[in-house]
Amino acid sequence: MDVTLGPTDEVSDVEISRSVPLPDETAVAAVEHWRYEPAPADGVPVSVLLTVTVNFRLPSS
User: Fold this and answer.
1) Helix, coil or strand: residue 52
2) Rounded distance between C-alpha atoms, residue 1 and residue 8, angstroms
3) I need a labelling partner for 53 at 20 to 30 A (CA). Which of 15, 16, 17, 45 fits?
4) pTM of the shown model
């Protein structure tokens, strides 16, 4: 996923870069709840683009 972190501690945008339909919604929902420390540029918080990989495991039988 390509995740844009806003100048606050919240995720401002999420785009799926490689899709597996069923877990996409769950992965996006999880990432949207994450909080980050804002990235500073010259001491001022700015937006940043971050690539995030979310891995899922199926339960073993």
Assistant:
1) coil
2) 20
3) 45
4) 0.76
